[in-house]
UniProtKB/TrEMBL annotation:
It is a multi-pass membrane protein. PANTHER family: MAJOR FACILITATOR SUPERFAMILY (MFS) PROFILE DOMAIN-CONTAINING PROTEIN, MAJOR FACILITATOR SUPERFAMILY DOMAIN-CONTAINING PROTEIN 10. Residues 1-379 form the Major facilitator superfamily (MFS) profile domain. PROSITE patterns: MFS, SUGAR_TRANSPORT_1. Pfam families: MFS_1. The chain crosses the membrane at residues 5-23, 29-51, 63-82, 88-108, 120-142, 148-169, 206-227, 239-258, 270-288. CDD domains: MFS_SLC46_TetA_like. Keywords: Membrane, Transmembrane, Transmembrane helix, Transport. It comes from Dactylosporangium salmoneum. InterPro entries: MFS, MFS_dom, MFS_trans_sf, Sugar_transporter_CS, Tet-R_TetA/multi-R_MdtG-like. It comes from the Bacteria. Belongs to the major facilitator superfamily. TCR/Tet family. It is found in: Cell membrane. This is Tetracycline resistance MFS efflux pump.
């Protein structure tokens, strides 16, 4: 399952280095590029709770396979897109399939021992992170094929991933495991799931924390190229190495560290620590020499690596039986932040290069406070009915 997620993100990441240039060749302005990038996040915002709720009803494996098939289709459509509207539509299809990250998270929880669920979520995060590390590097190496050629290669990778998924993905949870959700059928209505989730007192601060922290991190991703070029003379290759390093740190933390520290300190404490580290990295980033900037990037990558799987684990615990739907709501909160965060950060950067990072650090403080409100008394037993948890 982790391999399926990794290869899916790998195929998606392959086209990213060429996407801005292809948009420009089609006559797109900066607004169009922003629209193409934002369309993915907005589509993911809509699709995540739908796919999660459908996986609660029909099972994780079928929904994950449908998503893998959709990824292959979206990449093929991206390759043949000869106009800006066609390219935008292809990215919408990709975002709709990208909403299945919540399905992968729920799948990992279903297959994990109860005490290993945060570790399993960390492995999902590591698979996603490494896909984004290696994908753009492969895309850059294949740039000579042209945008269409690279897109078709990525589509071929996605198709191979689908075939491997049909053969290799487990058909059911461990026979000795108690299902993470009751077996009866649940509503797949995304709006009903959203309303139900927001009514959970234990979930509200977590969704706010996810939005705030993701907003901060997405703002850094959107503006660091400008900051690095101004302060340290970084060009495209240097920036590529920097972001590769950030991705590797996050993957190592999620894949090998987070499970160990949560075993000792618990999800909530580790999540708060992650928010604090992310904030410290952001507030330090725009100041000082290059070595301090790179150290700050390592610190904030560590914080994000700790934060993502632990907040997902807390959301899964707070959501009770509707595991896929609730994790989908968490992905929607993250997607919403990724849709608006880069735009807001860009405007803040125009006001002053340090402004988006100071704003992000403040939002990390908000995220930490929100997670501190999610105390043990507010957490619910994993098998509780959503109606029992409503405010």
């Amino acid at each position: 399952m982790y391999l399926a997620v990794f290869v899916d993100m790998l195929g998606f990441g392959v086209i990213l280095p060429l996407l801005p240039f292809h948009t420009e060749r089609l006559g797109g302005s900066g607004v169009w590029l922003g629209g193409v990038l934002t369309a993915y996040a907005l589509a993911q915002f809509v699709a995540a709770p739908v796919l999660g709720a459908l996986s609660d009803r029909y099972g994780r494996r079928p929904l994950l396979l449908v998503s893998l098939a959709g990824s292959a289709v979206s990449l093929a459509l991206t390759g043949v897109a000869g106009s800006l509207p066609a390219l935008l539509a292809a990215r919408v299809v990709a975002g709709l399939c990208g909403g299945a990250i919540a399905v992968g998270q729920a799948y990992a929880i279903d297959l994990a021992e109860p005490g290993e669920r945060t570790r399993a979520l960390g492995m999902v995060g590591a698979a996603i992170g490494m896909g984004f590390v290696f994908g753009p590097a492969i895309g850059a190496a294949l740039a000579g094929l042209g945008f269409a050629g690279v897109s078709f290669v990525a589509g071929g990778i996605a198709l191979a991933n689908l075939i491997a998924g049909v053969v290799l993905l487990p058909r059911e949870v461990r026979p000795d495991a108690k299902p993470a959700q009751p077996p009866r059928r649940r509503s797949a209505n995304a709006l009903a799931t959203l309303v139900q989730a927001v009514r959970l007192r234990a979930l509200r601060p977590l969704l706010g924390a996810v939005f705030a922290a993701t907003f901060a991190f997405a703002g850094m991703e959107a503006t660091y190229a400008l900051l690095g070029a101004r302060q340290h003379g970084l060009g495209p290759s240097g920036l590529g190495l920097v972001f590769t390093g950030v991705g590797v740190v996050m993957a190592v933390v999620q894949g090998g560290v987070v499970g160990r520290v949560t075993d000792r300190f618990g999800n909530r404490r580790v999540a708060v620590t992650g928010a604090v580290l992310l904030g410290l990295g952001l507030v330090t980033l725009p100041y000082g020499p290059a070595w301090l900037s790179y150290t700050a990037l390592a610190v904030l990558a560590t914080g994000q690596g700790l934060l993502a799987p632990t907040t997902a684990a807390l959301i899964a615990q707070a959501g009770g039986g509707a595991l896929g739907g609730v994790l989908g709501i968490g992905q929607s909160a993250s997607a919403a932040a990724r849709a608006v965060g880069p735009i807001a950060a860009g405007a803040a950067f125009d006001a002053g290069p340090a402004t988006p990072y100071l704003l992000g650090a403040a939002l990390c403080g908000v995220a930490a406070v929100l997670m501190l409100q999610h105390n043990r008394g507010a957490e619910v037993r994993p098998d509780a009915e959503p109606a029992e948890q409503a405010a």
